[in-house]
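Cross-check.
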Amino acid sequence: MNNIKEQHAVPFFILSFLCYYIYMEKISRYPITISLVIFTGLIYLILGLQIANSQKIAWGVRVAGFNLGRNTPQIAQGKLKEQWDNFAEQDLTFRFQDKNWSVKLADLGFQFNEAATINQAYQIGHQANILTNLKEQLIALLAGYQLEPIYKIDQGKFQEKTAQLFKDIERPVQNASLIFNQEIDDFSLQHSTKGATVNREQLLFDLSQLIKSFSLQSINLQVIINEPTVENNEVDSAQQKARQILADQSYQIILEQNVWAINRNQLIDWIKFEPISEDETDNQILGLFLDNNQVKEYLEEITSTINQQPVNARLETEGNRAIVFTQAQEGYGLDIDKTIEQLIQNILAEPPVKKTNIFAQKLLPRIALWQTNNLGIKSLIGQGASNFAGSPKNRIHNIKTGTAKFNGLILNPGEEFSFNTLLGGSGAAQGFLPELVIKKAKLVPEYGGGLCQVSTTLFRAAVNSGLEITQRSPHAFPVEYYSPQGFDATVYEPRPDFRFINNTPTHLLIEGLVQGNKLTFNFYATDDNRQVKIKGPYVLEKKQDGSMKTILTQEVYKNGELFSEQTFHSNYASPNLYQVGN
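Predicted model, tokenized:
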């Protein structure tokens, strides 16, 4: 019964108001009575509108021409969504010249916000102020409220869909540019062309007009013609500069003793062309640049082994050995960005600058070797190296096994080093394999073959460190692994042996490293300011059969005066005398 009353509240009020009007005409001679009648009519009007619009969208409110008045928000939202869905699923038509396209609004990325739209509609006549409510409800009743649907646009989807739709009429503008032509080995002209783009801003406006009334009227597209900013006759300066850069070979990047050359193909990849403003004008011409990202990628690759953090020294000892040893290493902090800037500036200079120094600073370790121990092991005092490229598998194994026997060994001040004693045997029990050795004028396989590579390298390190050599024997004939000849030391159990004395004032640490085909021994101790001069080895005599005589001299100076001198003579027989046998 209450619902029936609400439905007919306004018509009943209008009828009542008409009756009041007629009655008022009859009693127009009575002003007080007329005032009371008008006041009573207004009360009826207010009460009638409030009853009719209670908890409902005000009578006369429309969205996109669709009447929502006298519906609850929930019912109105459902009805309005149905209207939108029907509209959005129908094809819209776009036209340009003799072409046309059909597409659904939903496919263009339009998404209806029915909740926000209904909320906007419901707010009319439902404000906090009763007078504002009455005013809005009267306007809605007498003149009507026309609202627009609230929606949002997925711009990514809109751009993607329209690009797909209009791909036959849209084309990018192409500035005149240069591309490298391998056939003529030069830069060729890439012609300029006009571009065409659909005016999407106007298209969105036209679509918004259709949405206001859920109209399916076709839209005529507007197409913008884009003119190139660089024409064909505006590339000469860039072309001349590109030719000059490629003609001035070769460019170098330098870091101390390291030099890297930039080849021609690398430069071609780096060169790029972009429009620039002509001097003191608004006109644009083609400019030449270098690709910053490609230059950076190249620099990072060539400096990957240099740009590194410093390494702190570590030394942990147990008995007469270093169980953990790491020599301090300086690092490099490269300023790649600053180097890129300088390199590009040099190549683009007039004329180009061919050499660019890498911006870098040395990074010192926080812990130096002398800080790790109280043995006086502070710095590298000498080094010996040899190459065993071409060695058989077993020989390489024995070299690595023998090196490990001496790696980390610590000698006391004045202690004599004995290769055979410290090796502790060269048999299978010590981890060695059979390999050729010189024995009784023959080359025969025995366990430990190849250990002379280790003794020779230790000999070189000891001589270079200025240590006193107490026992050394050359090989029977010149062995190819020990070049230069005359700087070798042969060993065999129990003799010959290789011996030297640690004549430094402190302990001495031996470090052995095998890197690829290179064997290195580093000697660390306290630098007592000795200066070592090595003379030779010199070949005194060499015959056609390969036999030879050599001499090697070690001179050790302290405070500028000769402290000690040792001479090592080597008398090698012909290799032809030593054949492989049993």
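The first strand starts at residue 61 and ends at 63. Residues 60 and 144 are 5 Å apart (CA to CA). Passed to J.P. for a second look.
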